[in-house]
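Field reference: sequence -> structure
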Amino acid sequence: MATTREFRSGEHVIVLRESGRADGPDYVLVHGLGMAHEYWSDLAERLDATGTVYALDLPGFGDAPQPREPLSMEAAGELLAELLVAEGIDRAVLVGHSTGAQVASETAARHPELVDRLVLIGPTVNPRERTIMQQSLRFLQDVAVINPKVAAVGLAQYSEAGPKWFVANLRPMIEHRLERVLPQIAADTLVIRGEHDRIVPRYWAEEIAALVPKGRYVEVPGHGHDTMLAGVREVGELIARHAHGRPAGRVVSQPAEPMKAMQLSWPSALGFWALDYVYAVLRQLAFLTEGRRPPARWRTGDSAKPQVVLLPGVYEHWSFLRPLGDALNADGHRVLAVHGMGVNRRAIADTSLRIARALGRVRVPEAGRVLVAHSKGGLIGKHLLLDEHADALGIRGVVAVCTPFAGARRARLFTDPSIRALLPGDETIVMLGSATSVNARIVSVFGTFDPHIPDGSALDGATNIRVPVAGHFRVLGARETLLAVRDAVALLTAVDAEDAGDAADAETAGRA
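Structure field:
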């Protein structure tokens, strides 16, 4: 028989509905934005037979009163941890749907001692679509394939929450960076996605499973973002298997979909190729009108953020990367263009050495530097990471856009030695490919189709991000790329800060 009670912490109240049996796992079900515990009713009924089920109403939803301000995902995760302690649930199976997955992930990362296993169903927010407009459009697309019964339940609960409170909670959802939390989760984690989920694309769901140290991925066929309602039997069985330590889903070492180059017909490929070169020509001509020196405003920014150093590709002047430079400067970064590279035709090793010398002649910013590169520039950036003086130069990592880490076989179509140096068998390309120790400090960003790098830019051990844009040059000006690069810089900064904190803790412990 189900019982309902409240948990209160200050002005925040969580209403929980308990059901099931006492001799099994403790399932804690965390709903998504605008929902409440009723959304879990069918799934809770299936899980009742295997353990105790706690279905929650988070503050401001369902029967829980609204606080004055919406909680951030971090604060909601801490509140959930308080509830687990108060209820004596010390080895919970946390199950979060959509925004609830963000809350559950925060709890699991911050309080590993309280979480036995974690299940993330349709987890948000895809970092390549981190705007309210994009998420709203995805929601409307998903509604088009939703089950009518499910739509009725959802509409009733959205109405109960009220549009004002719903909108107020959108900002914390959008601003939360789930990708930074996932690597800190110690619990065995199962990521569940509905096959037709428009809000959570497959590549993002697989990336989540890859970022969690002990993550597995499974897809439920025939359903969308509402998969735990419309596919309640399949989802219930998956959760129960996972809760009892039986393998569910598959291990994902890297997100599969972003690794694949789009297969196009020759007419389509030629069309993309033509558009790509039109963009490249326009960027080359822009050099004549935008000036030979970077904008003065690039020299100013937030000293707490790393300086960004731009590394263009072959036959590219620094201004080729101006869209990225402008966006990162607007985000608070100081941006540096290294002069003297010309059109970047020198050998990779020689250029790397020259850049190292140039950076060594100026003071290293306290927040360090992140290299943002395109094509060959990404190879130069990796070469710099391998330099013994990389740390002294303050280089935190490299964000590489459309970089041929495994070489570019189409370079054989050119006679220019500076392009043929990018062939897969080139000595420097082979050396860089075998040097995997720095790959974790690289974020590789690439599009759906690259006419110059048909084998793709994915790099084992790096963070690989595919943006929904085709081309080798056009990618640089796409808004999706700007967002991905901004997040990549933030990710490298956060990882570096965590490493520095760990080193400081170890040094302190050593003194003790």
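Note: Residues 3-250 form a domain with the Rossmann fold fold (CATH 3.40.50.1820).
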